[in-house]
């Protein structure tokens, strides 16, 4: 017992139990209640209690310090009316004296005199207090004014603390959201979904499903804003209870969070106090608790405000989020009436009586729920139904993407200078794709899928860390956690199956059969086969009904392709492959015998453990030697089925390998480009409706299988009710070594190799990845568009080992200086490095210089052909060449060096001791530049071959170069197809180089050079009498003429 209460009870014992006599007005004085009984929350001074005539009561609980100041002999008390409550009533005189010493009411202006006629002859009397005056009598208006002042003083500070606490909590970003940067808060990026006023009749009898085009083209009727939900209804009645419903993914929880944050920042002035509750939290306990205790337990800052909730005009809003988690019973037999906020009842009973308006009848309530649970609240308790329609307006989708993708923090730290233009380009491409009313428009009908689109684009375009902080599988798993974490399909069902587990068993089956049959469109018959064929009980049919009502549209939507309006497709194409992978990895792909065997195995295993204890005890007492034999027989069954489960995991690994290395998918785009195209669309003419569609590609399916097995994703799926045991993941990985790694040994096309590297990244098993990478001696990724993400994946996967790579081919991969910086640790370990056709300028040459000067560099062959190196880049490369010890071959073919670049290389070439071959062809070198390079090469210890063809070298320069070659045998300057009166030994090499690079060179200039080569061949042929040499000249001439002819016809 608190000290105040003990003192209070002692003083109550000293007081007389009754008071006799009359007061000055002739009223009989009532019997005073014992002060120890005053545990109920009593309104503060100036509040009228229901059924009582007094306007001068105060809170005995919060002002126990007042009691020693009371005068027990004071006769100035109001006699209670017939319906009065058992409260201690005192007049203003006693109250004012007490309040002067009460720390809970510091210096509050009060009415001075007692205006009551029964107040002991003190009418017009005077009680001193701070700031007071004894001249003016109290009036009802001044009493109400003092009531408002007292309430504001008591609650304003607490409510401000409550707002601050709520704002911090509801502005908190989940882990999945933090990847966008700290400023991506609800205030910074939020678009309100469309809210439509509805009715119970529409919910019970929904209109026929419209196609996506019809839903987007039709204006949404009866639209209502979030701030107008509590406006009067059509009949002019004030709305107190609002039910806000919507299917999974429409944005109910986000909208409520935004509503709370708006109130915290003063943007919801209709309400003075907002008290949110999660129905999921309320469902976890059935222990009786009072409403006031429930509020103060969750929101401690409101402990000083709670006493005034039922006795003041404070405008309160209760938010009950996720009503489908609560089982409510509105029958009187199931939930008794309760109007006392202090009475302990189960949390569900509190919710029922709040909605009944027995508890806090003046409070407003907004309830969010899924469609299947709307009918749990009788319609007579609902003032307005409102449906969240998501982003049914395409302009809302565009606005969301504009705000999200163009935000300055979207590109992350260390972004390139052109990131802003890249962000705007992404939004533009996405907007054009939305305007075509493609399938992505149907997906972005749900705000949650808009979030997934932005997250995926952020992953594809702005990932630059090594290793990448995210995986694609992790994004999809986290996306499902955001929408289904803790969700039970139907809280009234005794199985209590998690929503995600149900989805994996049913929708996953549909997805898997679609992947196996190469199909993305599903008819009603297909849906019935997957959802209804095994339905046998009432409970299963009820679960299916709830799924169709609440979840179906989240995963499947009507197809938008002409002629397929009555079929369904997965809302996001990649989700089909993810759910198919989850279906397989969870082991749901079983025959009936396997399922029965697994259940029997588990039962027999538990029985055998119990029997073991009994057998051990009996065998020590009785000589029953046959009992251990029976016990071992019991163990045979579980062991037999454990072997079957091992074979099942081998089958999963085999499926993964077969799907990963399908030869018919070898020459498709890599999976990351496929995802990018599915979101941003493919620019160009649209396919004609009569044109045969391309075969469906499901290359993400095996990658998702590997990603789901990672430790992080398994932990998240465990929260969703989809458990994958560590032992199962270990055995699948062990079985994969026999299949996946063996099949990867054969040569893979570049796009397929990129998919394999991405699979290893998604698998997140460093030990397995290291073993797989060691077998890759040559990595050919030519023509793969190496985005920052792909560079990070390549660097991360190859970084699991330290072995040397024989060859890394990154020809025509859209590399830049930041890409080289990301790949730097990998490039150090590559012996042959192909970087031609990548638009690498001087900035990139600085990275290459650092690479060549690194003491761990093993690069022996470096090809930089067809890059805009220029004179400045040549200077940087020459510095790297001077200090390098490993490089033996360097190709700078067609790199715009000019004589200045050639001079820079010649200047530093003398400091190099290992270079053996240098290609400076097609660089606009004149006689001076070419002679300068060859003069230095003549003195070089190892250099024996310099390529100078397709340069601006005259006949005199050619003869000078030939004479230099004759001075020191072994230095070969390849300039023309001829060598004196003979054909050059390297004529075929020169022509093959021209043919390979012709698509990237200036055709007119190539034609001119070929004409010069042909003229030189004819001149040399006329100067020799050797028939054998003449024949060789004629052969080479025919090859050049053939190339010229194809060039003029445009066939080359």
TrEMBL record:
Name the Pfam families for this protein: LRR_6, NACHT, NLRX1_C
Q: Where in the cell is it found?
A: Mitochondrion outer membrane
The source's domain of life comes to: Eukaryota
InterPro entries on file:
Leu-rich_rpt (IPR001611), LRR_dom_sf (IPR032675), NACHT_NTPase (IPR007111), NLR (IPR051261), NLRX1_C (IPR048900), P-loop_NTPase (IPR027417)
The reply to whether Secreted figures as a keyword in the UniProt entry is no
Region Disordered, residue ranges:
1-28, 130-154
From the record, give the transmembrane residue ranges. Answer: none
Fetch the SMART domains from UniProt: LRR_RI (SM00368)
Pinpoint the NACHT domain residues: 240-373
Example GO molecular function term? ATP binding
User: How does this chain assemble?
Assistant: Homohexamer. Interacts with MAVS. Interacts with TUFM.
Function as written in the Swiss-Prot or TrEMBL entry: Participates in antiviral signaling. Acts as a negative regulator of MAVS-mediated antiviral responses, through the inhibition of the virus-induced RLH (RIG-like helicase)-MAVS interaction. Instead, promotes autophagy by interacting with TUFM and subsequently recruiting the autophagy-related proteins ATG5 and ATG12. Also regulates MAVS-dependent NLRP3 inflammasome activation to attenuate apoptosis. Has no inhibitory function on NF-kappa-B signaling pathway, but enhances NF-kappa-B and JUN N-terminal kinase dependent signaling through the production of reactive oxygen species.
Protein name as catalogued: NLR family member X1
Query: Upper lineage ranks?
Result: Eukaryota, Metazoa, Chordata, Craniata, Vertebrata
């Amino acid at each position: 017992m608190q000290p105040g209460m003990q003192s209070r009870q002692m003083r109550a014992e000293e007081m007389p139990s009754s008071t006799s006599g009359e007061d000055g007005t002739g009223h009989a004085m009532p019997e005073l209640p014992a002060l120890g009984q005053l545990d109920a929350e009593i309104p503060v001074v100036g509040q009228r209690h229901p059924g009582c005539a007094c306007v001068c009561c105060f809170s005995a609980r919060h002002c126990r310090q007042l009691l020693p100041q009371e005068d027990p002999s004071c006769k100035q008390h109001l006699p209670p009316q017939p319906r009065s409550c058992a409260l201690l009533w005192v007049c203003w005189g006693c109250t004012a004296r007490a309040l002067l010493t009460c720390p809970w009411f510091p210096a509050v202006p009060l009415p001075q005199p007692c205006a009551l006629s029964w107040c002991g002859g003190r009418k017009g009397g005077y009680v001193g207090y701070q700031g007071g005056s004894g001249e003016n009598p109290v009036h009802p208006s001044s009493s109400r004014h003092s009531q408002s002042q007292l309430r504001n003083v008591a609650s304003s500070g607490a409510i401000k603390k409550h707002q601050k606490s709520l704002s911090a909590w509801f502005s908190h970003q989940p882990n999945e959201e933090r990847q966008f940067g700290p400023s991506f808060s609800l205030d910074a990026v939020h678009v309100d979904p469309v809210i439509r006023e509805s009715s119970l009749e529409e919910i019970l009898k929904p209109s026929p499903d419209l196609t996506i085009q019809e839903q987007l083209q039709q204006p949404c009727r009866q639209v209502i804003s979030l701030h107008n939900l509590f406006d009067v209804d059509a009949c002019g009645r004030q709305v107190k209870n609002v039910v806000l419903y919507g299917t999974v993914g429409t944005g109910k929880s986000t909208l409520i969070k935004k509503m709370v944050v708006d109130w915290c920042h003063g943007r919801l002035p209709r309400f003075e106090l907002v008290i949110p509750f999660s129905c999921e939290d309320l469902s976890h306990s059935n222990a009786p608790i009072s409403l006031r205790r429930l509020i103060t337990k969750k929101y401690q800052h409101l402990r000083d405000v709670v006493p005034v909730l039922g006795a003041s005009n404070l405008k309160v809003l209760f938010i009950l989020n996720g009503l489908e988690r609560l089982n409510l019973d509105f029958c009187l037999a199931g939930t008794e009436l309760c109007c006392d906020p202090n009475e302990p009842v189960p949390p569900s009973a509190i919710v029922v009586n709040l909605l009944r308006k027995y508890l806090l009848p003046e409070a407003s309530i907004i309830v969010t729920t899924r469609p299947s649970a709307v009918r749990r609240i009788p319609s007579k308790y609902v003032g307005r139904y409102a449906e969240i329609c998501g982003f049914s307006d395409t302009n809302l989708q565009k606005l969301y993407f504009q705000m999200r993708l163009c935000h300055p923090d979207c590109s992350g730290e260390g972004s390139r200078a052109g990131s802003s233009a890249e962000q705007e380009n992404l939004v533009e491409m996405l907007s054009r794709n939305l305007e075509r009313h493609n399938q992505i428009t149907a997906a972005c009908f749900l705000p949650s899928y808009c979030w997934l689109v932005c997250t995926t684009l952020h992953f594809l375009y702005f990932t630059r860390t090594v290793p990448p902080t995210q995986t694609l599988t992790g994004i999809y798993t986290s996306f499902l956690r955001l929408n289904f974490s803790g969700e039970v399909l139907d809280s009234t069902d005794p199985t209590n199956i998690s929503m995600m587990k149900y989805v994996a068993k049913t929708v996953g089956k549909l997805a898997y059969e679609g992947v196996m049959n190469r199909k993305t469109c599903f008819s009603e018959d297909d849906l019935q086969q997957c959802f209804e064929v095994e339905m046998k009980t009432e409970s299963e049919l009820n679960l299916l009904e709830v799924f169709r009502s609440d979840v179906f549209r989240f995963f499947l939507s009507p197809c938008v392709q002409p002629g397929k309006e009555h079929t369904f497709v997965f809302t996001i194409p990649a989700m089909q492959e993810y759910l198919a992978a989850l279906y397989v990895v969870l082991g749901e792909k079983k025959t009936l015998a396997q399922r029965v065997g697994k259940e029997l195995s588990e039962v027999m295993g538990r029985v055998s453990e119990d029997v073991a204890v009994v057998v051990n005890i009996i065998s020590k007492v009785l000589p029953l030697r046959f009992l251990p034999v029976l016990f071992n027989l019991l163990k045979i069954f579980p062991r037999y089925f454990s072997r079957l489960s091992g074979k099942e995991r081998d089958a999963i690994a085999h499926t993964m390998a077969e799907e990963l290395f399908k030869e018919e998918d070898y020459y498709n785009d890599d999976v990351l480009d496929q995802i990018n195209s599915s979101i941003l669309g493919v620019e160009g003419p649209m396919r004609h409706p009569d044109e045969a569609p391309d075969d469906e590609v499901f290359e993400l399916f095996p990658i998702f299988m590997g990603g789901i097995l990672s430790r992080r994703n398994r932990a998240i799926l465990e929260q969703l009710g989809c458990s994958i045991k560590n032992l199962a993941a270990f055995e699948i990985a062990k079985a994969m070594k026999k299949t996946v790694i063996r099949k990867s040994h054969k040569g893979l096309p570049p796009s397929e190799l990129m998919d394999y590297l991405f699979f290893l990244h998604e698998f997140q098993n460093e030990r397995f990845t290291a073993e797989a990478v060691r077998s890759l001696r040559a990595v050919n990724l030519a023509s793969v568009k190496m985005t920052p993400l792909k560079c990070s994946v390549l660097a991360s996967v190859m970084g699991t080992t330290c072995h040397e790579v024989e060859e890394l081919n990154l020809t025509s991969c859209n590399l830049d200086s930041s890409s080289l910086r990301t790949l730097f640790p990998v490039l150090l370990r590559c012996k042959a490095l192909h970087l031609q056709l990548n638009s690498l300028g001087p900035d990139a040459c600085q990275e290459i210089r650092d690479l060549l000067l690194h003491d761990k560099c093993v690069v022996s062959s470096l090809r930089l052909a067809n890059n805009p190196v220029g004179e400045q880049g040549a200077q940087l490369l020459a510095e790297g060449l001077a200090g390098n010890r490993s490089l033996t071959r360097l190709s700078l073919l067609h790199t715009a060096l000019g004589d200045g670049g050639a001079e820079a290389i010649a200047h530093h070439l003398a400091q190099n001791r290992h270079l053996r071959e240098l290609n400076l062809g097609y660089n606009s070198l004149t006689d001076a530049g070419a002679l300068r390079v060859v003069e230095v090469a003549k003195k070089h210890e190892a250099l024996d071959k310099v390529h100078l063809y397709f340069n601006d070298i005259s006949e005199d320069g050619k003869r000078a170069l030939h004479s230099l070659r004759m001075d020191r045998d072994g230095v070969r300057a390849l300039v023309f197809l001829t060598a004196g009166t003979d054909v050059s030994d390297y004529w075929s090499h020169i022509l093959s180089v021209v043919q390979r690079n012709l698509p990237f060179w200036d055709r007119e200039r190539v034609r001119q050079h070929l004409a010069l080569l042909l003229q030189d061949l004819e001149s040399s042929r006329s100067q020799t009498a050797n028939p054998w040499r003449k024949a060789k000249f004629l052969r080479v001439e025919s090859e050049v003429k053939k190339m010229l002819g194809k060039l003029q016809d445009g066939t080359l």
